[in-house]
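Provenance and format

Records in this collection were gathered into a single text stream. Each protein contributes a sequence line and a token line. The two records reproduced below are adjacent in the stream.
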Amino acid sequence: MNQKMKNHVVNLYMIALSDGHFAPEELETILKIGEEKGFTKEDFEKMIAQPGIEFYIPEEFMEKVKLLYDFVKVILSDEKIEDEEVRSFMRFCKKFGFEEEQSNALFEWLVELAKQDLPTEELEKEIKKQIQD
């Protein structure tokens, strides 16, 4: 298993738990994202069953945005955006070094992309497109 992708999927799980409510749709979305990254449901279960799991903060900008984007997909999986989920998103943006104003704009932009069902792999192209416009 690729450690970077393993951290990504475990981070999504930990973020999803952060609002105190873990909906079945959130689990389904995390499993789908895990599949896209080459993990099975059994791999995921093994990952979260391991003691000593820590939240990993990516160093690269693109990895941070991809993790936040996947988190937005988890947030939207139950078709409602809870205040606590938004607060969790903002906390993670702060941990990732984003300013509050940037975080608000990033959240809105990522929600729009997630509603369009943009695959995470296409996110980098979308960012480059926005920079060029």
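Adjacent record:
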Amino acid sequence: MDQSQICPRFEQAISLLSQRWTGLIIYRLLSGPQRFCTLEAGIKGISGRVLSERLKDLEGRGIVKREVFPETPVRIEYSLSEKGHALEPVLRETEKWAQTWLEARS
């Protein structure tokens, strides 16, 4: 395919999803709202600083919602917006492809 024919929006989407950890964060949130510590524990190898940066970026792009519950102590949960949930078919198909074509790492 001629590079001049690639849609700029497609390039933006690939750039977003290819950022380290971003796809995994979205994938983890497909199962429902989660607290920061749950996300951090569920994504092997991610640092708290990077997770915080990625969540802020995804929130700024309207993909992730951050909800603060006025409790003591304060509870904060992250969830996918409608825009974020729209990525589910893409991630599920990527998961199916990986199960078929990639070898498991130890």
